[in-house]
């Protein structure tokens, strides 16, 4: 499957996201929002992609 709208500036391996380019490890959005659920994030597990949308 070819993904014509892969954004090569946004790498992504979350295949369960509706915005994941299924043939390549890229996001299909033009821009993503990154946030955190911690008051003082220290490791990457504290950071979230707030643009995530579950794939149907």
Question: Could you explain how this protein is built, in words?
Answer:
With 56 residues, this protein is mainly beta. Helices cover 0% and strands 23% of the residues. The protein is built from no helices and four strands. Strands 1-2 form a two-stranded antiparallel sheet. Strands 3-4 form a two-stranded antiparallel ribbon.
Number of contiguous helices: 0
Helix content: under 10%
β-strand percent reads 15-25%
Rounded radius of gyration (Å): 12 Å
SSE run: EEEE
SSE layout and pairing:
Elements: E1 7-11, E2 26-27, E3 34-36, E4 47-49
Antiparallel strand pairs: 1-2, 3-4
Any descriptors?
56 residues, mainly beta, two-stranded antiparallel sheet, 23% strand
Describe, in short, the structure shown:
The protein has 56 residues and is mostly beta strands.
